[in-house]
Amino acid sequence: MMAAARMLRRGQSRATGVGSWGNGEEPAPPGNQEVAAESRKSHRPVKRQRKAQRLHVAYEDSHGEKSEGAEPLAVTVWEPQDWCQQLANIRTMRNRKDAPVDQLGAEHCCDPSAPPKQVQRYQVLLALMLSSQTKDQVTAGAMQRLRAQGLTVNRILQTDDNTLGKLIYPVGFWRSKVKFIKQTSAILQQRYDGDIPASLAELVALPGVGPKMAHLAMAVAWGTVSGIVDTHVHRIANRLRWTRRMTKSPEETRAALEEWLPRELWHEINGLLVGFGQQICLPIHPRCQACLNQALCPAAQSL
């Protein structure tokens, strides 16, 4: 009986994990399979969640003290060297306002007393269409002859092509301009009640109206500055290196200038540079000796 009792107690000890010495002092050592399983468990990679990192930007406030925060870094905008001084010099050279554009530009070719306002805007648009590839003096002469006949949408549509051609001759490409003027006038009568569109996109869509004319029409007829564009501006901007790289067309120059030139200067810069290009910075044989920018102009030595 005593032997049976000892065997019973020994079986209970094994079942409960208590050591063979009794009182649960030490568990029995694990077998080979248990050791292998524990080893594999200890070598498994442990996946840890990464905490999102918050980036802080150190900056100095107006008192020179360093602070931290989410202030965006300032983006440096490219601008040409010495452009402020070059512009000031051009203003000085143009202060007399005696270039052809100052007396014969599109804004001077319309009849300021012509009622209603839409007639004045129509005359501005026609002056711009005639001015392409044409000197201001020739454009002004053609506009005077047209105004003498009564320059309105209806009057132009009633004028035959031969007569209209004689009135605008000798503007550049006068035959094509007769066709474009007739087509544009018909569109203005049908869609705009004899007025001109008030948006750049609609102006450019008119026959014979390019980007330069549309931008100038927005500025002169509607008083809205929408961009900078002119062949004189294109030439002078490249000579002064006012574009990051050399540009090949007035439209490309316009986009390059508008990247950095303050918008409040857009309206001024066109008339300023046109007159400067007519008097001093000529397309051929520019008058560099008379230019205040001679020492600041990168192109002065090569012209």
From TrEMBL:
Keyword line: 4Fe-4S, DNA damage, DNA repair, Glycosidase, Hydrolase, Iron, Iron-sulfur, Lyase, Metal-binding, Mitochondrion, Nucleus, Transit peptide
GO molecular function: 4 iron, 4 sulfur cluster binding; class I DNA-(apurinic or apyrimidinic site) endonuclease activity; DNA binding; metal ion binding; oxidized pyrimidine nucleobase lesion DNA N-glycosylase activity
Domain HhH-GPD: 130-279
GO biological process assignments: base-excision repair, AP site formation; nucleotide-excision repair
Spans through the membrane: none
Annotated Gene Ontology cellular component terms: mitochondrion; nucleus
Assigned EC number: 3.2.2.-, 4.2.99.18
Ranges where the record places region Disordered: 1-70
Key word Nucleus present: yes
Gene3D superfamilies: Helix-hairpin-Helix base-excision DNA repair enzymes (C-terminal), Hypothetical protein, domain 2
Biased composition (Basic residues): 41-54
Basic and acidic residues biased stretches: 57-69
Subcellular locations according to the entry: Nucleus; Mitochondrion
Sequence similarity: Belongs to the Nth/MutY family.
Function summary: Bifunctional DNA N-glycosylase with associated apurinic/apyrimidinic (AP) lyase function that catalyzes the first step in base excision repair (BER), the primary repair pathway for the repair of oxidative DNA damage. The DNA N-glycosylase activity releases the damaged DNA base from DNA by cleaving the N-glycosidic bond, leaving an AP site. The AP lyase activity cleaves the phosphodiester bond 3' to the AP site by a beta-elimination. Primarily recognizes and repairs oxidative base damage of pyrimidines.
Protein name: Endonuclease III-like protein 1
Protein's organism: Heterocephalus glaber (Naked mole rat)
